[in-house]
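DM from R.C. (forwarded with permission)

"hey, sorry to bug you on a friday — could you get me a structure for this? deadline for the figure draft is monday and I only need the backbone to look sensible"
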Amino acid sequence: MAKANVVIGSIFFLLALLMFAVALDFPRPQVSGLSPRVFPQFVAVCTMIFSAMLIVKNVRLLAGKDTVVQEKKKPDSQFAVRFGVFSAAGILYVLLIDKIGYLIATPILIAATMLLFNEKRRYRVLLVSVLTTLILYMLFRMVFRVPLPRNPLW
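My reply, with the result:
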């Protein structure tokens, strides 16, 4: 598994490097504010950092400097069901976001995900789903100036 992780980490590092280079060609903003290249470059740098961490960790494992005891575990059927429901919820989210808008679809997806992964405290589900949606909305709409899908009734 360590060899595969080194290969995967290297591929992701190179893809992130390519993404960073492509973002350099994005246009400069005409007015003051963040450039369109900031977010993709941020994601690319984070991906490069995590890829490098994955590579270093697994090279150390291959060299025998680190030891990890790994148990072979089969994924249980409950995980498979949760994964299937989560995937279906993601597809449904993508299909509905243009029809009902970001501010309605996103907290529903976050709440459904939290409930799917057994969060029992309903107030926490409500609080996290609403606050996360609002924070992301403000970040993308007001800071990055990315138009998000709106409810057609508003």
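R.C.: lifesaver. The mean pLDDT is 88.
me: no worries. The radius of gyration is 20 Å.
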